[in-house]
Amino acid sequence: MSSYMPSDFSTPSKKGGVDTISHTHYIFPVLKNSDILQCMSEVGIEVSKPELTEPQRHKDKIRKIFWHLLDYCCGVTEEELQGKTPKGMNGIVPESELELHDDFVDILFFKEMRQFMKTCGITDFSWKDLHYPTAKRLRCQLSAIINMAKFREEQLGLYEQLNEPRTELLEVLERLHTENEELRRQLEEVQAESSIKKEEFDRVAKECQELESDIARSNKLQASKREEATLLKKEVTTLKDELASATWTLQETQAEEEVLKGQIVSSPDRRKRELQTKKDYLEKEKEETRRLQQEITDGKAKMARLQQAIKDLQETMVLQRQVLDEASKYEEVKTEVEETKKEVEANQQKTAEIEESTEQAERSLFRLEEKLSHTRKQYNMKMDAVQDRLDVAREQLLIVEKERRDGMAKVEAGEAEVQNLKEQMKAEQEQTEEEIASMIAAYKELEKAFYDRNEKRMQAIEAAN
Q: Which pTM value belongs to this model?
């Protein structure tokens, strides 16, 4: 469908309180009936030629056409206006005045249509156009609405074209926010696990301190037992030497006794005295032997205690080896805790980098939105400039209307200038689109780098877990 650009403004005047059209120039081209029928058919609204030429005979149909156009261009439906009507008027308005509020929807419809027609360039739309329409005014009104509909379609296309990069960036930003929340959750889980491991580490450290105290006591006990065992060994050696010496003395005494038996003489008294002396000596030797045997028994008891001490020492050494194993495990746990702390610090650093990347993405999005807003402002300013130029051309056309040839030349010059401006605007729009495309490409490269780095971080986190 072709675009309808404004060509002139209408200046309404008031006569007797009723708005009427005083000029034949509008901000839109007044179409022929055939063009109106074609355009209405394109938007899906059925209109016949008699309805355009004799609208006063088809008032209900014309009203439905306005309803369809209001819905098509503004999205205002009859059901929506019915929803805006006040409910429960029976308790507020007297019964004699209830009939005044029956056409509340008509009032809202007229209000919306009046505002809509004012936007389209018809400033004198009134109740008469709904209840007593004329072919001339209906033609102008439908031309204005069609011009607005065409302009709206073009602007919607431009808006969608400019809004598409922003929508993509918002989706990317939302996805980055989601990934950031997921990483935050994983970081909290890792911190919770680290806290549990730290508690276990403290508990193991406490147990290791207790084991170290036990080891110190065992070492002291072991040293005392070793010293006692050394003394007992020395005493046993001494007792063995004394026992061997006593045994040797006893054997010599017995041999001497045998020799003396062979030398017995007949002197009984002397022999008795010698015998008594020998008996006394023998008793002393027996007493000494019993003492030595008692010492041997004591030495055996000490040896038994020594063996028990050695056994206790061996058990202590086994316990010490167990303690050393626990200490080794403690060192391993300590190493794991240190590695976990390093991983937590690394995860915190990664989270900070992710947050920084997210902020950079948000800043890029903000810059793109500013760029888009600036482009729209430039577009609006250029449209205003075009409108101003068209206004100037219209005034010139009114001044030299009697001289049509000169006026047509000026109009053609104005149209050429408008075409030139359109081409400039198109070139600037293409340049803007290229800049936006380059910014989007740069952002996608940043996004890809961020995804790669994030994937490596996630693999590192999973490996750590």
A: 0.35
